[in-house]
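Hi, here's the filled form for the chain we discussed.

Project: internal
Contact: R.S.
Residues: 131
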Amino acid sequence: MFKPPTIEEVDAELADLESRLSEFNRLMARKQTLLDYKSVLARLSSNGSETAHKEKAPQGQGIETAEAAKQILAGVPHMSEKDLPHEAVKLGWESSGSEKRDVRRFYAAMHRQEDVFEKVQGMPGTWRLKK
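And the returned structure, exactly as it came back:
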């Protein structure tokens, strides 16, 4: 016969889940820190692993946001505006250090050039080059 869990059992399971979710959030924050660090190292190193695959912009000449988006989207069918800044850094685009600000920069740059970029229908926050 089925016996429903008690309030104490539910509270214990909720506490366990909260603890596990806290560890997950800590791991996600560490992952982002390492990705940011890797990006900085790649920009500082003339022979970093990312620079071997992409041509690096000359020192002191950052790539414009819209141009970075064009170059990235030319090689893929579409991409989320949240992923564009990470890819753009590989091309020499300079991040502000704030993920939210960088996403807004890409949104604004692509939104202003509606003859070049378009949103993908049914995929919020996803863009592609106009055909």
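Let me know if anything looks off before we file it.
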